[in-house]
């Protein structure tokens, strides 16, 4: 199978975890009705983005994976015959938590999980308070519709993460995301930030010759101080935008992606072939200096 239909669910969230899960399931069904074969949900879709504050009560939002949310999504995947990519707050053990994405195959089988590797600690994004960095390494998941690579939000900024995922054989890379603008910022700053975010991910597509899917939330949160900027998108293997979401509306979109284009792009723009891997060992240093 070379052509795959990708469903992206860009939505706003509320404080009720069950309501968010129910809403996501309805939107997965909507995507499937439009022909989607793989459906990707946004980062931490079962809750508001709680990492804007350091609050111990928020740990109550976490759950085991597999667990209640994957148990609810697996029969949906099986009924609809779709792969579901679901970003969740994982409770691994007492006092040990991860920002994790589960992958469920089109027959309802839980295939495994990826734990977010790069954890931010910025104003209104205090993720290091909640999440332990991932220890499963980079992952790909062999699904009915292709080998899926999954990274999460802050991982977006790191070409090393996308490169390794591509080298593991990913046919397509997915980034569940939660990122937005502080509402007291000027419009030029907003656009500069969004353009940087989109550009870095499109560059992963170009450098690796694989399609990229980035799914972000929308809506005002943090008592109106944060506007999650939506702007979800899908690229082809050359970084061309095939779909671009709005900045302020919920959207369920289905985009056809040709996975066979990877072979064509890697032959005609052979960035992967021409890598000088024998020169890259310094990249494992924190900084290249005398220390």
Automatic annotation (TrEMBL):
SUPFAM superfamilies: Carbon-nitrogen hydrolase. Keywords: Hydrolase. Residues 4-259 form the CN hydrolase domain. GO terms for biological process: putrescine biosynthetic process from arginine. The keyword Hydrolase applies. Gene3D superfamilies: Carbon-nitrogen hydrolase. InterPro entries: Aliph_Amidase/BUP, C-N_Hydrolase, C-N_Hydrolase_sf. GO terms for molecular function: N-carbamoylputrescine amidase activity. This is N-carbamoylputrescine amidase. It comes from Epilithonimonas mollis.
């Amino acid at each position: 199978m070379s052509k795959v239909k990708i469903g992206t669910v860009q939505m706003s969230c509320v404080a009720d975890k069950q309501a968010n899960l129910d809403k996501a399931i309805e939107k997965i069904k909507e995507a499937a009705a439009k022909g989607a074969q793989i459906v990707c949900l946004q980062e931490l879709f079962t809750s508001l983005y709680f990492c804007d504050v350091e609050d111990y009560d928020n740990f109550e939002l976490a759950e085991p994976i597999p667990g209640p949310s994957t148990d609810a999504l697996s029969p949906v995947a099986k009924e609809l015959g779709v792969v579901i990519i679901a970003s969740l707050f994982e409770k691994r053990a007492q006092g040990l938590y991860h920002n994790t994405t589960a992958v469920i195959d089109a027959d309802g089988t839980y295939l495994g999980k990826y734990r977010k590797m790069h954890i931010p600690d910025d104003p209104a994004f205090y993720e290091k308070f909640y999440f332990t960095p991932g220890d499963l390494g980079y992952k790909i998941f062999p699904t009915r519709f292709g080998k899926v690579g999954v990274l999460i939000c802050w991982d977006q900024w790191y070409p090393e993460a996308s490169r390794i995922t591509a080298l593991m054989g990913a046919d397509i890379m997915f980034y569940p995301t939660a990122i937005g603008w502080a509402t007291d910022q000027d419009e030029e700053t907003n656009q500069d930030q969004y353009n940087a975010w989109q550009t870095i991910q499109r560059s992963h597509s170009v450098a690796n010759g694989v399609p990229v899917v980035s799914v972000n939330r929308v809506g005002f949160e943090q008592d109106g101080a944060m506007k999650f900027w939506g702007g979800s998108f899908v690229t082809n293997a050359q970084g061309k935008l095939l779909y671009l979401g709005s900045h302020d509306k919920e959207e369920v979109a289905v985009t056809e992606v040709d996975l066979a284009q990877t072979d064509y792009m890697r032959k005609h723009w052979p960035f992967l072939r021409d890598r000088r891997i024998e020169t890259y060992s310094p990249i494992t240093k924190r900084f290249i200096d005398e220390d």
